[in-house]
Amino acid sequence: LSTKWSLESFEEIYGRLNNSLDYTILESQTADTGLVESEKALSKNLLQKSDEAIVYLPSKNEKLIPVVFVNSSGFPLYAAKDLGLIQMKQDLWPDMTKTLVFTANEQTASFKVVTKVIQDLYPELGSDFLTHIGHGYLSLTTGKMSSRSGEVLPANQALNTIKQAVLVKMKDREIIDLQKEEIAEKIAQAA
User: Fold this and answer.
1) Nearest to 83 by CA among 124, 122, 45, 127
2) Do 63 and 108 contact (CB within 8 A), yes or no?
3) Buried/exposed 44-72: b ≥16 CB within 10 Å, e otherwise
4) How far, in Å, are 14, 16, 87, 168, 178 from residue 164 at the CA level?
5) Residue 104: enclosing H or E segment and its boundaries?
6) For 29-70, how does the pLDDT look when each residue is reduced to its tens digit (9 = 90+)?
7) What percent of the chain has pLDDT over 70?
8) Which of 8, 25, 118, 162 is most buried, judged by most C-beta within 10 A?
9) Distance CA 159, CA 68 (A)
């Protein structure tokens, strides 16, 4: 029920931004495939066992960080789920030649490892198959925005706040009110 409600909320935001998704793959759906793909990478010596976890340990010459794919309890972590996501996308769209992944900048170092493992596991995909695009994040007056801690600003609330600020700035302009609404909405979306 909460997933349905959450996806409906996203659809509302996508609609407001004149956007849509053709297909949705939830993080939870990638776990099993990610575990299989991590085991496959382990069998090809792309990953290693360390204290019962499946990890990437860079060589001394590599400018990469250690990354845990599967924890010591056998649960796939983000890196494993990213492997699973790539495999699921390949299954859904076998002719796909490029995939983009957007995450916060703080994940860039980990994604360099994920990209390397994917390139080594599936060389036929090519070196430019996966592109990671890091982005900044919104800082709140209480600190960094984090869904895990509940410190979030809902997208519609942010859009409405910006829109209202724009309308205040435009209040004395000689523009028809309906046009002010349209302009303010476009500015809020662009922000």
Assistant:
1) 122
2) no
3) eebbeeeeebbbbeeeeeeebeebbbbee
4) 20, 16, 44, 6, 14
5) strand 99-104
6) 999 999 999 999 999 999 999 999 999 999 989 999 999 999
7) 99
8) 118
9) 37
